Amino acid sequence: MGFWNKLRVTTSESINVRDDLSAGTNVMLHFLFLGGLAWMSGQPFLFPSLGPSAYLLATGEKDRAVGPYHVIGGHAVAAVCGLIAYVLFANGIVVVDAFQQGKPFSPEVGRLVISGIVSMVLTTVGMLWSDTNHPAACATALIVALGLMSTVLETIIIIVAVALLVGFHNTIVDRVQDLYGVEPKDPR
Asked: Model pTM?
């Protein structure tokens, strides 16, 4: 099937503009809240792996990935596993600086690769053992393991930011959805 045919909506599929705009509004509310916290505090309450988590919350995806236990627990496991790997293998190295040098077989990049691999193995096993399966949290493990947010304070901020995201969703966004009838009806 060609590219354009894949984009065409068939009779068995439908675009629900209301649901899609509702999900977009919900994501906007999440990031206005966390962005405001980041701006007011000067601390990194916004980081890349919050995007997929906010998306899952906003679109009404299945509970296995988005229940508070999974989202908060998954990111907590990932942040701690990333920090352990970073401290053991790449302490003091930041991925952006290491790749900026552009040296083949750089020892710094090698240490970051090992840190990333170990963080992903620990995170995978940790989430499976704790039943906190939240795939978006794997990005958190790499953010920490690659030196982007790798202090104890930043690791705590990650966990607090995720808990605030879930709490904000469950209290404010859910109320807005109920009040204005903008909860997506068709989780995708």
From this structure: 0.85
